[in-house]
Amino acid sequence: MKLLINTFLIIWLVTPAFVLAAPLDIKSQKQLFIDGYMVESSANLTQTQHTPTKVGPLISPINDWEGVGSKCPTVWVWSVLPEDGKFRMWYTTLICTDAGNSGGAGYIESTDGITWTGRKKASGMTSVIRNNNNPPDKRYMGWGGCGGTKSKCAYSSPDGLSWSLHGTIGTILGDVGTMAYDSVKQEYMITAKGTRKDGDVFNPRKSYSYSSTNLSTFSSTIRNDYLFDATDAAGYVKAASYGIGMWPYEGVYIGFNWLFLITAQLDGGGEDGYIEVDLLFKRQIMAQWSHPSHDPILPRGANGSWDDGMVMTASSPMIVGKEIWLYYTGWDGTHAQPQTRTSQIGLAKWRLDGFYSVDAGATEGSFVSPALTFTGKNLLLNADASNSGSIQVELQDANGAVISGYAKADCNPITKDNVEHMVSWTGGKDISALAGTPIKLKVYMKNAELYAVKFGKPEFAPFITLSNQVLPNAGQGGNEVGTLALENARGDSITFSLPAGKVDNADFTISDDKLISANAVDFNTKNSYTVLVKAEDNEGNVTEVEFILEVEENGIYTSWAYSKNVVLNTTVSGANVSGTVKIFPVLLKLRESNFDFAQAGDNGEDLRFLGTNDKVFPHEIAWWDATAKHADVWVLVDSVLGNNDTQYFTMYWGKTGVKSKSDGNTVFDTANGFVNVWHLDEEGNSGANGYNDATYTAENGTGGAGMTAASDTASAAGRGQWFDGSMDASTEYINMGSTNSLDGVTGLSVSFWCNPGLLPFTDYPAIFARGTSANRTPWIYGMNGANNLAMNISKSAGVYEGIQTPDLQQGVWQYVTLTWDGSKLNSYINLDYGDSSTTTITTVGPNDQYALVGVFPSGRRWYGGIDELKTSRVARSEDWHKLSYMNQKSDQVLLEYGQVVAVEQNIMTEGVITGAAYNVMTVYNINGQLVKQFPVSGYKPEMSSTDMVRGEFKPGLYVSVFGNTEYRSIKPVSKRFAIIK
Length: 981
What we know:
Elements: E1 9-11, E2 24-27, E3 31-32, E4 41-43, E5 46-49, E6 53-59, E7 74-83, E8 86-97, E9 100-110, E10 116-121, E11 127-130, E12 140-145, E13 152-157, E14 164-170, E15 177-182, E16 187-193, E17 207-212, E18 220-224, H1 230-233, E19 238-249, E20 252-265, E21 271-282, E22 310-313, E23 318-320, E24 323-331, E25 343-351, E26 356-360, E27 365-368, E28 372-374, E29 379-384, E30 390-397, E31 417-422, E32 439-446, E33 448-455, E34 463-466, E35 470-471, E36 480-487, E37 494-497, E38 508-511, E39 514-517, E40 528-537, E41 542-551, E42 562-568, E43 581-591, E44 608-610, E45 619-625, E46 630-640, E47 648-653, H2 664-667, E48 674-678, E49 702-703, E50 712-715, E51 718-724, E52 734-738, E53 748-756, E54 766-771, E55 776-782, E56 788-796, E57 799-807, E58 814-820, E59 824-829, E60 832-838, E61 850-853, E62 863-872, H3 878-888, E63 895-897, E64 901-902, E65 908-909, E66 912-913, E67 920-924, E68 930-937, E69 940-941, E70 958-959, E71 978-979
Parallel strand pairs: 2-28, 35-41
Antiparallel strand pairs: 1-5, 3-33, 4-27, 5-26, 6-25, 7-8, 8-9, 9-10, 11-12, 12-13, 13-14, 15-16, 16-17, 17-18, 19-20, 20-21, 22-24, 23-24, 24-25, 26-33, 27-32, 29-31, 29-33, 30-32, 34-36, 36-39, 37-40, 38-39, 40-41, 42-47, 42-63, 42-64, 43-46, 44-47, 45-46, 48-62, 49-52, 50-51, 51-62, 52-61, ...
């Protein structure tokens, strides 16, 4: 047995372990200190590997089917999942008799992970994982034997107890292996022991790793070659790897190598020896493992203990609170003693991220990180400085120069032990302004241990919250703003205060846990306040958080410089739609001809929209390019009246210092039937989540490597994507990820613009494919040898029905809508109503794969353009389809833009004419021609029930005409425009 010590010390090299020209983009992903990835240079630091605290044994064999009464009672843990307020464990069993050995499986549960009850026989799965991206009947995936063969099979289950065959994995796999699931990359990982016959002295057993997205096909395989070496085998006949537990964690992979230390070769080819667990590490799923230390991360127990012979881990650990829990099996005998040993199940615990730390002693040490970029507004450290220690962080630019305000001297020292300290600098500075900019960290330490670094939102650290951050317009002093609270507080009492130094702090006070406004609030005077709040508990822990308090606008945009009416014309001279369409997103194409970009904010952040009766209309800025004078803005109109040319809403702009109100989630609210809205107006890219879903569903797309800046193209509706399927067959597509957002719907609409690059179609090129050939809702593709599209929907695997559209034209953008109302499929192209087909499908079946744009799972690719791809869980009406087409097409006819009104020249207030006593209100058009006159009586124009003014009017002294019988004006002018003579 190897000599064990609690920690294994390695001096950090001053020479960097990694030197990269480009900054590391770590986003908000936690960084551990197992390798040197985060260390460019260091001084006076050591690295420590930490062994766990053991708990147990917790589970022992008690039943005959667990081998009680035989020569080797065995319970061998494979998988433990915490879910629904309990822990679930799957394990195998062994019964040893003179006639031979036989195996089985068990299942058991616990409410606290320590006391286990309700054990029962189960199907034999060597690993079980839960995949929430799978349909309900395949929520659990397992791996086990295939009826006594040397192959392994994948199984699926709705509950983890009743299993169905999913597929055979392969014959290369041996008798021991584990499975894990990377939920971020959505890949299954399998590691298995292969053949034992190998001439290499230090590799008698081969270990293989496999990856798969579906446990049916495997995209890559690698032989694990560096799991042990001569150092591990010192004092033994040889060493081997018996198996590997695996854990995808924070973008890296941690392995638990069951190191077989062989003490004897037995007659017949068997081997005897001990097994203990070493820690492995890698950053890519199919890379070779690195072996940071030759000391075990999970050692065997002392001689005479229940786990002194062998220890092997469950497939993966888990996070429980602020700890890592890893269940393991311990044997009180060696490998060749199955007739005389007993196994039991125990638990190993580490602090969160606690496998390795970088440490400093009484002499101050430090390290500098490589240049990196991040997201978020907080820097968090998992560290222990409670032994009279301290940690401070200095921020440097990419060249190593200290960033002003973030020097070591500005950093409040960390002096306690916590898995999530929030680093702070004097003045309450956060680091959000530095997000996306290359920086370096220089960390100073003394008598401290650092386990991990993370940017982003804290999970455990004390963090101040404020229940409300919006101030009412025209609010008086003394009003309560909101309630303060300290999440994850460690002390028994908390004191809140407003530190001096922030100018806006003087406008507020704190009473106990209430933030109070000290002065009156007026949006037009000041539209936001920045307040720094400090919290201190009775243990001396201090946290400071900066809040931005916004003043409500109330939809009364009196201080905006400009406004313009937008008329919705649905008469025969406009969109020619007779029915009313409710809750409809209207597309505004702002161009140089109808909008002065120099008057607005750099990114359109000052755009606002009001309907009648001053109702705020939400909007989304899908594209804004002030240089090109091009913007696409969606405005949610509560109701578009049919056969009407007097309805309008008003657009406002020209206000500095306000925040953008662009909100695609509200414009395309899932409550209004939308499921996905992909505008596809991003610059072509292959970045993760590079194509935004504007809805709350948030199924963002990732482009293949062939999606580049050249993929971005002009379309009828604004900007779209071009898929050159004829030239780069494998990489020009967008993957929307695993999705079940349409599962079980009883209605469906899919709409998009497309521009076929070649007709008639060859093969079956895909526009949108959700699911596989078994479950396909929707699948939209070109018909081989024809000029039209088809859509399929499924109710179950292999059962689907479809519809075909009218013919498309080559090289022309066309608007396609396909709907299903639960009984009938309909298709439209532009204004052409296509086929209608009755279906027997009443509910859409579950999706069994991801969604793709521009390609089928089988590789049939679209050649041409796609834009504004939208899905809804309702069948949109024919009026909705027609209104969308007439609004979005290149020569749109729904919207008429009025002239710009200079708000400050308004000469009316709330229906009362100001200035001289006017007798007549006279309206002139843009050419100065008389349009209409109204008598004025009692300071109001006398209008008949049919009076309404239309046309283009000269900018200047305008007032508003509203409705057919009522006249009034608001601040600023926002309705119809007229000139006072």
